[in-house]
């Protein structure tokens, strides 16, 4: 079964458009210059072209389509005879495309170049086409060549979604930092200031509690310093900024409850590459500690042919979901640098988190 073509929207084309369609021969006849013949050069080009080629009348009805059109959309030409091309257009694109077509065939518009719209295939799926069209006014025909740009449109949509996720993640991180500062170090510093003022007053008045107040203020200041250090570590650790990726992995390994082998053999890299590599390792080791049930983990990093390859492997239970929010965030970070993330996690066979990042020469 396949979707039945809807009643022709050609009837709603403008009257001015329809007048151009009167009394012309159909292109199925052998004497038409636009009817490709098996032995003709034009016919060979028409049949062998990878792009979709379609000829319609000023009334929008199909006159001819090439094999690439039939293969891509799934409609044999026999099903399209006497139908309007608008019947294949996605419903949301029909109004503006109909208006554009009417203007074009009336001569109110000079060209239809690079027009992108959706079509509904015979199996119900939707594809994006980019088309260029030319009017043949003396024959009342429109000749169009279209290219399937579905993959590019999907990639553009994924890129936009990835950028939106990166922006959202950055906003969340900023809010977290503000919240942690407000609830932690800032509150302690305010307490410290108040306590120091009380201690000063106690000293001025000769009260006995000044030493206790000073000890309390010092304690709060020390706690605030520790919280600020921890907050800074959550952004980028000093081990990374001072010692590079190997030192940062060593620090992460020391904090991971699972034994971690540090096999990072790279020197200093750009700040962006080092930070992204660090977050890959940090997220992977966090997942290992929380979910893997592993007895051993290994972090490997090498540069080969201008690409930094990072592998974080464990011998845990496997079955990790590659679409978790943490891993999606890593994929977005990597994509921003032209890198990619790969997850291999077979149930009972451990997990491999692999990342490749281009390294500028």
Automatic annotation (TrEMBL):
It catalyses: ATP + protein L-histidine = ADP + protein N-phospho-L-histidine. One of its GO terms (cellular component) is membrane. One of its GO terms (molecular function) is protein dimerization activity. This is histidine kinase. It comes from Solirubrobacter ginsenosidimutans. It is an enzyme of class 2 (transferase). Signal peptide: none annotated. SMART domains: PAS. CDD domains: HATPase_UhpB-NarQ-NarX-like, PAS. InterPro entries: HATPase_C_sf, HATPase_dom, PAS, PAS-like_dom_sf, PAS_fold_3, Sensor_HK_TwoCompSys, Sig_transdc_His_kin_sub3_dim/P. Residues 38-108 form the PAS domain. Its EC number is 2.7.13.3. Keywords: ATP-binding, Kinase, Nucleotide-binding, Phosphoprotein, Transferase, Two-component regulatory system. It holds the Pfam family HisKA_3. The keyword Transferase applies.
């Amino acid at each position: 079964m396949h979707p039945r073509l809807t009643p022709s929207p050609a009837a709603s084309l403008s009257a001015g458009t329809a007048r151009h369609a009167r009394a012309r021969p159909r292109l199925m006849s052998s004497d038409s210059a636009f009817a490709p013949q098996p032995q003709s050069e034009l016919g060979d080009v028409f049949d062998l072209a990878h792009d979709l080629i379609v000829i319609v009348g000023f009334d929008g009805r199909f006159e001819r389509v090439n094999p690439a059109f039939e293969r891509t959309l799934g409609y044999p030409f026999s099903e399209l005879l006497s139908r309007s091309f608008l019947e294949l257009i996605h419903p949301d694109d029909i109004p503006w495309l109909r208006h554009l077509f009417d203007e074009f065939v009336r001569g109110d518009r000079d060209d239809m170049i690079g027009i992108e719209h959706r079509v509904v295939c015979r199996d119900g799926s939707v594809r994006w086409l980019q088309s260029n069209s030319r009017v043949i006014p003396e024959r009342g025909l429109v000749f169009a060549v279209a290219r399937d740009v579905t993959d590019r449109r999907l990639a553009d949509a994924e890129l936009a979604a990835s950028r939106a996720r990166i922006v959202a993640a950055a906003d969340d991180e900023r809010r977290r930092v503000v919240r942690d500062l407000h609830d932690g170090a800032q509150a302690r510093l305010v307490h410290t200031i108040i306590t120091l003022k009380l201690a000063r007053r106690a000293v001025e008045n000769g009260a006995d509690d000044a030493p206790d107040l000073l000890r309390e203020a010092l304690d709060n200041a020390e706690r605030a310093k520790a919280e600020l250090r921890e907050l800074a570590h959550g952004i980028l650790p000093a081990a990374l900024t001072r010692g590079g990726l190997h030192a940062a992995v060593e620090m992460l390994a020391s904090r991971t409850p699972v034994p971690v082998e540090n096999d990072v053999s790279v020197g200093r890299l750009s700040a962006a590459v080092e930070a992204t590599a660090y977050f890959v390792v940090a997220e992977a080791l966090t997942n290992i500690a929380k979910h893997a049930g592993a007895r051993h983990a290994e972090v490997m990093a090498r540069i080969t042919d201008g690409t930094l390859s990072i592998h974080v492997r464990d011998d845990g239970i496997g079955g990790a979901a590659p679409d978790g929010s943490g891993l999606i965030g890593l994929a977005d970070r990597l994509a921003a640098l032209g890198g990619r993330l790969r997850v291999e996690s077979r149930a009972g066979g451990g997990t491999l988190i692999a990342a490749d990042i281009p390294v500028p020469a």
